[in-house]
Design brief:
With 562 residues, this protein is of the alpha/beta class. 52% of the residues lie in helices and 17% in strands.
Length: 562
């Protein structure tokens, strides 16, 4: 209220109190109304009530001249009614305010709960869905998969999962940009959702998607879903003005729900996806438990190579390279073996490929080279002098910078003369377009190290490129030599013999010696000797074993005299 409004209100209340004071009979309702209106006018403090009572008692009768015989009695009663009305109004207002507060609190709580539910729903959606495509993500897929596995049933329920990955999607990102790649992913997600019907489609990340097929009857049910997904993805798509055609690979797993977990199913589908990728892509592949176990065994074996090197589990066997002219041992090829604590003695074909795939061939090959040089240093000289040691170098070893320094330091440390080390290189390594490996081999050859091409004939089989390479020896693949076991009048055997004779003749024209691999019979040795082949290697001349079993042996001449 303004000051004027307040004075007008108090003036009105004063008049009514005077009327109540003089009324016959006395009406207590007026005083109660005045007390209530004081509260309504926000004169609602304890001080306000006290001051009001004081003013009424001291000044109402005196200022207005309200003289009666029972003035004191009337004043007491009037003050009581004002106080009563005041107290009731104050109580009612307090109760109303409390009720208003309670209702406001209820409304606020309801709003807060609704906001919390909306927020939780929003967060739950965000936590369970991919922000780019709007598809369910890995979390929601795992929840649905777990629910499908845990669903009560007769124990015969089956479930299927397809994991899909776009082939060569990185090319789209690299050539057109990530924005175009994202738009393509959105398109692929929409197509997958339309093509597989009611089945759950999820984006696992990057360009990988998954399809959950619940309550399958057999594997063919999931295969049909996978084929529909592949067909949908492969349709040309126009994305931001670019016409794009992509393919996909799919890994499929379908099996009973009993005894499995979401993690196991997803791992199985992921492994199978890699099989489809390895087979060329644009296809599906179905999980095979036996194949998967073999893959796991391979992985475990490759992962154990570093520790096996540290524990000294590898060893070297040797196989002699024998001169066909006089049967003397020219050298020995180092062959690595793995004395595995659980699987026994493993041959190179069990782990060399794994070592090459994982890059462990570099430390393993380095150990083989160092150990072979260390052992060969102490080999005694025979009739033809001390044999050289021949060591295979993997592609990764040849292409490593510092090969020349590594070999030079190794020869210096072991004291092995350079001419007693032969490095065997594959044809593909020598035909590399990278010049540095060839330059390194030239330097090693200039220092006296022998350079041989291993398994010649299984790769390019091109003698022309040998003119500019530092090659001292060709080791002809055993596939050609095996034909010499056929009778002399056999057409296939005669063909192999003519090929070998031509290789020997051309190699000699380039001042390159020839060693035939895989010689197992005296007849093969005789026919190779007759065509002028320089040396041979194979079971006929000695099986792989410790160097000691070959050193100091008698020369192997022919089948009847060896």
């Amino acid at each position: 209220m303004t000051q004027a409004q307040l004075e007008a209100t108090l003036h009105d209340l004063t008049g009514r109190l005077a009327e109540a004071f003089l009324a016959e009979p006395f009406d207590q309702r007026i005083g109660q109304q005045v007390g209530g209106e004081l509260v309504a006018a926000h004169i609602a403090s304890a001080e306000g009530l006290g001051r009001t009572v004081e003013v009424i008692q001291l000044r109402l009768v005196r200022d207005l001249g309200l003289v009666t015989d029972d003035a004191d009695d009337r004043m007491a009663r009037l003050l009581a009614t004002v106080a009563t009305g005041y107290a009731r109004a104050l109580r009612d207002r307090t109760l109303d305010e409390q009720e208003a507060i309670r209702r406001a609190a209820m409304v606020a709580r309801a709003h807060a709960e609704r906001a919390l539910r909306d927020s939780e729903a929003r967060f739950r959606y965000q936590a369970n869905h991919d922000p780019l495509t709007g598809l369910p993500n890995r979390t929601l897929l795992t929840e649905r998969l777990a629910a499908a596995i845990a669903r009560p049933g007769d124990g015969a329920d089956r479930v299927g999962v397809c994991v899909l990955d776009l082939d060569r999607f990185k090319v789209v990102n690299d050539s057109l940009g990530h924005q175009i790649g994202d738009l393509l992913l959105i398109t692929v997600g929409e197509r997958l959702r339309r093509s597989v019907g009611e089945h759950l489609v999820a984006r696992l990340g990057a360009d990988e998607f998954a399809i959950l097929v619940e309550r399958t009857g057999r594997t063919e049910d999931v295969i049909r879903v996978a084929e529909a997904a592949l067909a949908a993805v492969c349709e040309p798509a126009v994305v931001a003005g670019h016409e794009l055609t992509v393919s996909a690979s799919i890994g499929i797993v379908e099996q009973p729900v009993r005894g499995t977990t979401p993690g196991e199913l997803m791992r199985a589908a992921g492994s199978t996806l890699h099989w489809a990728k390895a087979a060329g892509g644009a296809r599906w592949s179905v999980f095979d438990a036996e194949r998967n176990q073999r893959e796991l065994d391979r992985y475990a074996l490759s992962a154990a190579i570093p520790a096996a090197l540290e524990r000294g589990e590898f060893l070297l066997d040797y196989q002699p390279l024998t001169a066909l002219a006089d049967g003397t041992m020219r050298g020995m090829e180092a062959l690595v073996r793995w004395r595995h604590p659980e699987r026994g003695l493993l041959r190179p074909d069990a782990f060399i490929g794994l070592a090459e795939e994982t890059g462990q061939i570099v430390p393993l090959g380095g150990w083989v080279l160092a150990e072979a040089c260390r052992q060969a240093r102490d080999w005694p000289a025979g009739r033809g002098g001390a044999p050289f040691v021949s060591v295979n170098l993997a592609v990764q070893q040849v292409r490593r910078p510092g090969l020349v320094d590594e070999v030079g330091e190794l020869l210096r440390r072991t004291g092995l003369p350079p001419e007693r080390l032969q490095l065997e290189i594959t044809e593909s390594t020598m035909m590399s377009t990278v010049e540095e490996p060839v330059r390194a081999l030239r330097v090693l050859a200039d220092r006296g190290v022998r350079i041989a091409i291993d398994d010649f004939g299984t790769g390019y089989c091109n003698l022309a490129y040998l003119r500019g390479l530092p090659v001292t020896e060709l080791k002809v693949a055993g596939e050609f030599v095996s034909g010499l076991r056929a009778p002399a009048d056999d057409p296939a055997g005669r063909t192999d013999e003519r090929i070998l004779a031509s290789l020997v003749s051309l190699a000699h024209a380039l001042d390159v010696t020839v060693t035939a691999e895989g010689v197992e019979t005296a007849e093969q040795a005789d026919r190779l000797r007759a065509m002028g082949c320089d040396a041979a290697q194979g079971w006929y001349f000695g099986r792989p074993g410790p160097a000691e079993q070959h050193l100091g042996r008698s020369p192997a001449l022919t089948g009847t005299t060896a």
